[in-house]
Amino acid sequence: xxxxxxxxxxxxxxxxxxxxxxxxxxxxxxxxxxxxxxxxxxxxxxxxxxxxxxxxxxxxxxxxxxxxxxxxxxxxxxxxxxxxxxxxxxxxxxxxxxxxxxxxxxxxxxxxxxxxxxxxxxxxxxxxxxxxxxxxxxxxxxxxxxxxxxxxxxxxxxxxxxxxxxxxxxxxxxxxxxxxxxxxxxxx
Length: 188
Ligand SMILES: [Zn+2]
Description:
By secondary structure, the protein is of the alpha+beta class. The chain has one domain (4-187). It is 35% helix and 21% strand. The chain has 4 helices and 9 strands. The strands form 3 sheets. The protein has a 4-stranded antiparallel sheet with strand order 5-7-8-9. A hairpin with a 2-residue loop joins β7 (81-86) and β8. The protein is globular, with a radius of gyration of 17 Å.
């Protein structure tokens, strides 16, 4: 079983990785078994938070890492992640990438997968709660909800809140039955 992790990490030296207000952006790391999957030529691609949440619930082809501009600039250099669910597991198949040789196949325990994603969202929320609003945006008097969160590609607070709520409802629906199964296994 592979170990999934979605990690936010503020670099000691953010370099050019500042948002409009001069705030450092965290690096967004997709890590499987201690290997970072979303390094690109300069730094790291973003979390596609919406696709990540969709992948909790159902299979499909998802761009789990996405370019900071919000478009699939990674397409062509890496296949989208083919996600499938079955037998208490979530699978990722990545047909090709310029960042490694051959295809990759990962198998995650579904409970661990759901937990890793929920942990990510709670961490994003924690960062947003202690981060001042961007000066640049205040100047243009954007409503707070319409400001960009600077985590993931071009998402506003409002959009993040919607994705967060969807994550919570999927988590609550799918995680509890798996938890019960874990308890039963423990007793057996
Ligand atoms: Zn791009």
